[in-house]
Amino acid sequence: MSTVKDLTHLLSDEAKSRRNSPLKTAFKYFNDPNVVFLGGGLPLSDYFPWNKITVESPAPPFKNGIGATPSTAEEKIITEVSKNAAENSRSDDIPLSRSLQYGHTGGQPELLNFLREHTQLIHKIPYSEWDIIQSIGNTQSWDGVLRTFTNRGDTILVEDFSFPSALETANALGVIQFPIPTDDFGIIPEKLAETLDNWVGAKPKLLYTIPTGQNPLGSSLSADRRKAIYKIAQKHDFIIIEDEPYYFLQMDTYTKDVEARQGKAVHSHKQFIDALVTSFISIDTEGRVVRLDSFSKVLAPGTRFGWIVAQKELLQSIIKLHETSIQSASGFSSSIINGLLNRWGQDGYIDWLIGLRAEYTHKRDVAIDAIEKYFPKQVTHYNPPVAGMFFTVQFDASKHPNFATEFDSDPLKVETALYEKGLDAGALLIPGSWFTAKGQTNPPQKPQPVDEATKNHIFFRGTYAAVPLDQLVLGLERFGKAAHQEFGL
User: Fold this and answer.
1) What is the dihedral of CA 80, 82, 85, 91, to 10 degrees?
2) Within a 10 A sphere around the Cβ of 482, how many other Cβ atoms?
3) Domain coordinates of the chain in residue numbers?
4) Which segments within 275-388 are labelled E, that is strand?
5) What is the largest CA-CA distance in the chain?
6) What value does the mean pLDDT of the chain take?
7) Phi, psi (rounded to 5 degrees) for 187
8) How big is the CA angle at 79 (ends 297 and 67), to the nearest 5 degrees?
9) With CB atoms counted within 10 Å of each terminal CB, which end of the chain scores lower, N or C?
């Protein structure tokens, strides 16, 4: 086991100025039977108008698929969580009297214990001083991370195309984003190294990346690229923010051979875990990775439950922020999710994730098959994703017959025309320019040179997650026909 580095010098002024809430220090006596607790504004749980919640869920191993409705008793799990611990059927349930109360800013112990075991099973973090705290999803986690590590006017590193909500969160806080070039396989380590080796002024404290199933690009960083990027982080002393909501939506490489697809299914837990790409946190020997995880893409977005994995010292700074902001995740979600996961167990949760892998692999295959069939090959390029919910299709705008005339050699004008043509045809894909990371550093940094081979390329992002398969194919057929018409093919 390695020992973490002290990275508190990278904390923001806000984080350095935060103190522990004196009221929170008193809460350790809340359940002490020898203390009459008169110190907090906690309503009596007798007045919570929920005595019990009952939830029906599918039972592992999900032999009929994760989307099948359970029809027999053996295919169901009934979770009943009561207000009082003595009435719960399991000792690891979180009673409503506790989950619906104030307190436990870091998270309910039972659920955190499950997530710690899960994290170690999957990532095998190579240092001991790590922990987990709850959040209300990765968007809130990212907001908390920015406030903890950055000041207004600071610069962070981001992928040149990224999740707009993440970029806007930084914009609103006055944090400048410096884009790092990517290709079909994510951040290009050599470009990142070149940027930082020639940096003028104070170095960025953070690299924000969606390394697996990147949104919007659909790219995934290889293990080799992650290791190279981590070495750059060590050299230039910045923290990697590993935003990983799509991590478990990993798949095999796409093949047009339908029969070969059948032989690629993952069956055993070991096969599944071994097939997962190396995470940044799993190669973090210095405690300079902050991993953002979430149930939004593997259970449901409305659970509003996520968690942050990092070295303990850094997590304490985020907890201080949470104490005066979100306070805690939803008590209902905590009790329900914990009840489900502890009944499934680690093995049952892996069964669920294996089922998700199978479903998303099939959806990805259907989407890429349709792109291959309906999109004009003369002007397009795509790289089938190996993770996530998204695919992108690139178009060479310079091959539009009116590129140099009607569109003034402006690829964005072609993008707008193609977007509108697709809408007219009854299909919507999102223009790639909507995801562009824009920023101006002070002092200004030297931008990467323009790639002449791709400077006129545009792309559109689509998802195979949101609609039934027949609608997915119909939408891509419509957009493909619109592209043929727009390019005069």
Assistant:
1) 10
2) 23
3) 99-354, 356-486
4) 289-294, 306-311, 380-382
5) 83
6) 92
7) -55, 135
8) 40
9) N
Q: Name the band, by pLDDT with cuts 50, 70 and 90, for residue 267.
A: confident
pLDDT at 441: 77
Q: Report whether 178 contacts 157 (CB < 8 A).
A: yes
CB 340 within 8 A of CB 160: no
For residues 146 and 165, give the distance between their C-alpha atoms in angstroms, rounded to a whole number.
Answer: 13
Q: How many CA atoms lie within 13 A of 419 on its CB side?
A: 17
- In angstroms, the CA 13 to CA 17 distance is 6
Residues in the chain: 489
Residue 209 structure tokens: 């990346």
384, 253 Cβ separation under 8 angstroms: yes
Structural class in CATH, domain 356-486: alpha beta
pLDDT category of residue 359 using cuts at 50, 70 and 90: very high
**Res 205 pLDDT > 90:** yes
What residue has token string 């506790």? Answer: 98
User: In the predicted model, what is the mean pLDDT of residues 40-45?
Assistant: 79
Nearest to 289 by CA among 189, 173, 208: 208
Residue 12, classed as helix, strand or coil, is coil
Of 127, 276, 292, 271, residue with least CA distance to 206: 292
Which of 145, 158, 305, 157 is closest to 236 using CA atoms? 157
Cα–Cα dist 81/95, whole Å: 6
Alpha-carbon distance 267 to 353, whole Å?
Answer: 11
The secondary structure of 384-440 as a DSSP string is --SBSSEEEEEEEGGGSTTTTTTTTT-HHHHHHHHHHHHHHHT---EEGGGGB----
Count of CB atoms situated within 10 Å of the CB of 126: 15
**What is the secondary structure of 24-53 as a DSSP string?**
HHHGGGTT-TT----SS-PPPGGG-S-SEE
Question: Would the CATH topology of 99-354 be identical to that of 356-486?
Answer: no
Judge contact between 366 and 384, C-beta under 8 A. no
Hey, what amino acid is at 415? E
* Band of residue 154 on the pLDDT scale cut at 50, 70, 90: very high
CATH code for the part of the protein at 99-354 = 3.40.640.10
Helix (H) or strand (E) holding 117: helix 109-123
String of DSSP letters for 149-191: H--TT-EEEEESB--HHHHHHHHHTT-EEEEE-EETTEE-HHH
Q: Compute the radius of gyration of the chain from its Cα atoms.
A: 24
Helices 331-374 and 109-123: angle between axes, nearest 10 degrees:
40
DSSP category for residue 456: T
pLDDT > 80? residue 26: no
